[in-house]
Design brief:
It is a single chain. The chain is α/β, with parallel strands linked by helices and about 500 residues long. About 25% of the residues lie in helices and about 25% in strands. A hairpin with a 6-residue loop joins strand 10 and strand 11. The protein is globular and about 95 Å long.
């Protein structure tokens, strides 16, 4: 029989689902329970019963599983950002490996080796960017925090363990200055109030710091004084004001101006020098991203004369990090600011468009255009958003027939789906490498290596040179050259 809402049941957690929830079974029905660990025995309240499964909430922990640890963040539960902060990092890595294996086996129906996840260099204080909603608490004080799961209710957080301490301290000090200057927090329901978000970014290697106020209006009262105080106190490289007066859940508006400093910060990623504002996509965990880029570069296996196509290229960092290995790079990205950033980076590196050409287009449209033009890249790298590649992009990839496809993905499910499509259209899934860019959360990156499937992967050479007529020296030498070439190349 289906569970009933508010029913209390005692369950033993067996495993973790790919959203980080514990999974238990009773009478053949699965129950998904957040913030539980395999081996936990818990009293669970059923909060959402379905026909064949249910969602529950822990009422009482009776026995802890072997990998459960004490949470060190008081708001990890209601915040929901650190969905795996209650288990050891070793157990988290094992779970993420299994998430990816399940996706490729069950969703992709692929028999492909999935390696153990590459652990992150650090599990705390690793984020180089944060976007904090601004609101008020029950005492009408301005606070920052994070939205609770499936809501826009701010859970105040004074010390998020995932971001550098200076970001937490800057957020707290900014709230004080806003109150002192009579500046209000934005209210989504009434579309009133001034400050919507605080956006902070750090150059991980350079140490440069950026603060951006996202405001419902043209700026801030006493803006110059507030910015000067914060810039001095926190050694900020630049401060920006982004205007967003729309009734929207989108964080950033279209217009941004500089209030202090040069307007951008500098950093390097995998040896690529970058200038960043707020609109450019940039991996939030720099050291772990460099591990991922190294794996993608190894999978690409580029040769000096190769043409590399980088789809969904963002600021161009993946392609530019691989460019020393090949002859030519074309990068495609739909976000104009990111493309301009990629072009500026290429120019700083002294690269002309014949060496590194970046185009502002939809990935699918650009790939189809390149295929129609007869472009034949040797290697294609794709790094799509969570929804994965569209079929137009995949079709164009297959038509261009590169030797190798390297897929970087933040969603193992869509990566498995897209890999299966390519496997059905001439490619072999060779290997999958999970990489942990987001410790203590449910998210995991995946790098997939695909190679062009030849009609017959086996080449037989049945040629005995000694049987050739000794007088046929020229013919014998020709056969030797053929044999040496085939053995070398295949």
């Amino acid at each position: 029989m289906p569970f009933k809402k508010n029913q209390i049941v005692t369950l033993q957690i067996e495993s973790l689902s790919n959203d980080g929830s514990g999974v238990a079974h009773q009478d053949g029905q699965a129950v998904f329970v957040p913030l539980t660990a395999p081996g936990d025995v818990t009293e669970v309240r059923i909060v959402k019963p379905m026909k064949t499964y249910a969602f529950g909430r822990v009422e009482k922990l009776i026995t802890s599983g072997p990998n459960r640890i004490q949470q060190d963040c008081p708001v990890a539960g209601p915040c929901g950002g650190c969905g795996l902060r209650h288990i050891s990092y070793q157990a988290e890595c094992a779970a993420k490996t299994q998430f990816v294996r399940d996706a490729f086996a069950r969703l992709g129906k692929l028999d492909v080796p999935v390696l153990d996840v590459l652990a992150a260099p650090a599990v705390d204080r690793y984020r180089n960017k944060v976007q904090l909603p601004v609101g008020t608490d029950e005492n009408e004080h301005i606070v920052t925090g994070f939205f609770a799961g499936r809501s826009h209710r701010i859970v105040a957080c004074s010390d998020c363990k995932l971001q550098p301490a200076w970001m937490n301290q800057l957020a707290a000090r900014t709230c004080e200055l806003l109150e002192e200057n009579g500046i209000t927090a934005y209210n989504e329901e009434t579309h009133t109030g001034r400050v919507r978000h605080l956006y902070m970014r750090q150059g991980w290697h350079s140490g440069q710091r950026l603060l951006c106020f996202v405001v419902n209006g043209n700026g801030l009262p006493n803006e110059a004084e507030i910015c000067a105080a914060l810039q001095k106190e926190f050694d900020l490289t630049t401060i920006l004001i982004n205007r967003n007066s729309e009734r929207t859940n989108v964080i950033l508006g279209r217009k941004t101006r500089t209030a202090a400093g040069p307007g951008t910060i500098e950093d390097t990623l995998a040896g690529v020098p970058l200038h960043m504002g707020v609109h450019e996509f940039y991996q939030v965990n720099t050291p772990a991203a460099e591990v991922l880029y190294a794996k993608a570069r190894a999978y690409a296996g580029l040769k000096p004369d190769d043409f590399l196509l980088d789809l969904y290229c963002g600021m161009g960092t993946i392609g530019l990090s691989m460019l020393p290995d090949c002859q030519r790079l074309v990068g495609v990205e739909v976000v104009p600011q990111a493309v301009e950033g990629a072009k500026e980076t290429a120019a700083r590196l002294g690269l002309g468009t014949e060496k590194a050409d970046f185009r502002c287009q939809d990935a699918g449209a650009a790939a189809a255009q390149l295929a129609a033009e007869g472009a034949r890249p040797d290697v294609i790298v794709v790094d799509p958003p969570r929804k994965g590649c569209d079929e137009a992009t995949l079709t164009a990839i297959a038509e261009m027939a590169p030797r190798t496809v390297v897929m970087v993905s933040c969603n193992a499910a869509t990566a498995a789906r897209d890999t299966r499509w390519l496997a059905e259209h001439g490619y072999k899934a060779v290997e999958v490498q999970p990489v942990d860019l987001f410790p203590r959360t449910k998210h995991v990156e995946t790098v997939v290596l695909l190679s062009q499937q030849k009609p017959d992967d086996t080449i037989e050479i049945d040629l005995d040179l000694d049987e050739l007529d000794a007088t046929s020296a020229e013919l014998k030498a020709t056969y030797q050259e053929i044999k040496d070439y085939v053995l070398k190349e295949f």
